[in-house]
Every structure is written in C-alpha cells, then in structure tokens.
Amino acid sequence: MSHFEERKTAINDPEALRAAVAELASTLDGISLVERSEARGYLGAKTRGDYVIHLGRHSPYDVACVRQQDGSYAMKADLYCGHVEKALGKNFGRLKQLYGVHKATMAARKAGYIVQRRQVDGAVELSVRRPS
Amino acid sequence: MKPQIKIIIDESGDVKAEGIGFKGASCDAAMKFLEELGQTTKNVRKADYYLRETTTKISVAR
Fold it and tell me: CA-CA distance, B17 to B8, in Å (whole number)?
C-alpha cells in the first residue's frame, strides 16, 4: 500500500447523475431525471431545478438539483414525513453513493483503467487496474 | 503484485480510495482521476510511497 485518501462526493456531472438515477429506477420504477423541470413540494408548492429527480409514486415530493457557482449541484427537496429519505436514503445517501460509483467508473475508464464492481454489505467496492 | 486502486463508496456517498502496489509518487498520478469526484478530506501516504524505483547497472570484469 502506498497511499490512501478520502473524499466527499460532489455532484457535478449530469451524465453520472443520469446513470445513478437510471440504476435507482431499476429497483424503484418510475423514477426519472428531467432537465429544467419543476419539483413537487408540500401542498402543491413547486421549485425549479436545472435537473429534477421525479420520484413518481415513491414520494409526493421530488428533488430539485440546482447548479451552484462552483459547478456542483445542490439538492433541494421537502423532507417532510421522510418520503424522499425512504426513496433516496438519509441525506440523499443512496443517490450520492450511486453517483459516486458511476462517476468513479467513468473517470477511471476515461483514464484507461478497467473497473470491476462488487457489493460489500451496504458499500460498493470498485477494483481499478490497468488492462493486462 | 500488479498495482491497483481499491475504491469504497459507502452508503452516504463518501469515497475511500487506496493505491496498492505502487512505488513512490506514481501512486499520485495513478489516482489523479479521483479528483473528479470531489474534494479530498484525508490523504495518508504509506511507507511504500517513499520508496523509489531505481535502475542499477552492474559491469562485470572478465
């Protein structure tokens, strides 16, 4: 071992976000990512997002992804009653995890690596190496 | 062992990455692609990081 590091995932790549939402949709049917849309909030309130994760029948509220000055996207949602948390995990954790998986995989492949993925309890492990 | 990078993404989306089998600063270059994920919160260099790859020429007199 020569080096290890820890990172806080910042959502800044719509392509990886789209891949994460597509994977979520394989277990939560009807979830989708729509560009320049409106997220449903409490009592019919709506908020606009550069991207919106529509949660369909899994939640009466959606998630608006709002682009920040630094290029990252902030997540805005009505967290009332835990509907959004149930679909996407605490603090959008399940979404962030899948985003991280797809973003790391895309970045590694772009750098010429091959990537193997496996589930380890609740975490996802990627093994990244040069082709032999 | 062939150099590889293990990346663990936990349930909150935080990332831990470990370079395995690299010598010296080649590890930094190999893991540079991870910068696209977000800011580093912790970075630890292990003993192998400080090893250098060297080539030694030996001439044998006959």
Answer: 6
